[in-house]
Amino acid sequence: MSSSHAADESLWERVRDAYPRQQPLLNLNNAAVSPPPLVVEQAMIDAYRLISQNPDVNMWSKLDAALPSIKQQLAELADCSPEEIALNRNASEGLSTAIFGIPLTAGDQVLISAWDYPSVRAAWGQRQQREGIEVVSVDFALTASDEEIVESYEAGMTPKTRVLQLTHMFHWNGRVLPVKRICEVARAKGIITIVDGAQCFAQMPVSFRDLDCDYFVTSLHKWLGAPVGNGMLIVRASRIDSTWPLLAPFDPPPLRIDKFDHWNLGTYNSAIQAGIAPAIRFHRELGTANIHARLRELTRYWIDQVRDLPGFQLYTPVDTDNLGAVSLFSIENLDAKTIEQALRQTHAVHVKFRQVRHVAGLRVSPHIYMLKRDLDVFVNALRQVVRQS
Ligand SMILES: Cc1ncc(COP(=O)(O)O)c(C=O)c1O
Hints:
CATH architecture of the largest domain: 3-Layer(aba) Sandwich
Bound molecules: pyridoxal-5'-phosphate
CATH class of the largest domain: Alpha Beta
Number of helices: 15
Number of domains: 2
Strand order of the largest sheet: 2-8-7-6-5-3-4
């Protein structure tokens, strides 16, 4: 498949057939969690049944024997070493592992942004309250260029900055930040970098090596389509020793990356992880670049059709190769929550209200199992809602 297939509906019709039917709602909130392809769902069900037959042996001896191979495949996708990967439940867990695990002392500064994911900001806020570190927030305009954003982060770095927290793609409007360039500036100053890649991973090509950050965190149940409850934390090899695990480890305490996963997370559901390898196979058959091109195509498609609506306002840059499946809009003088409700109750269309600071709107996030005719349903519904308001 080549990127020129992004607009080929017949090809994507076949992809749609490989997914569970979405009903009763048209699901335009895949940025929260995506349905797994049917093969992934089936692999998880089979694994769960296997567990029920002899839980201890079938989970920890049989299913978990596949973990090294799963990590190897993820490492190829993320461009890192399998020895740098910990598997956990979600991005929030990986982020907290990094945030609470980096040794800091009172007076150390951590640089975050005013637009970051709420629980990331809250986690750093906890460390500030409990340990006396100083959390400094970078601010920049929504319309800022990549250049201006890099400058804002650089201006926020001081000799006391020990950690830089970055979001690769914002959860609320899908804007992609120039994280590689910002990490480069931080690295030159000896600052540790954490990249929240929850939205980027598997939505667009991402390379841990190329980003050159210290921690990269993502969930696998958004754009990779692994079963709900899968996350991945990548820790640069040289940082593993100095990072505390979030949960105290088992006995004997493991020294390497597995202090962040496996036994050390307590009992977890191995059937959920059994869905990761089939999800990677499905994803690879399509190819990350093709998936990204298709998601961009879908986003531009619906936006082009509603641009002319009176008061339509978009908070996502569309004229960029970084555009993916996540975008945010509002309609001037219409309450976004009221539109959200009308779309859902009258038209069975599910989009998500999102607000960060003063920016409030509706997040629209299609996935590869959707077709342009699904987006036509959304567009027509939105037109009607706006007309009748
Ligand atoms: C940017 C970002 N970070 C972190 C998270 C948390 O991910 P999870 O729900 O997998 O914990 C999300 C979820 O939407 C997100 O968009």
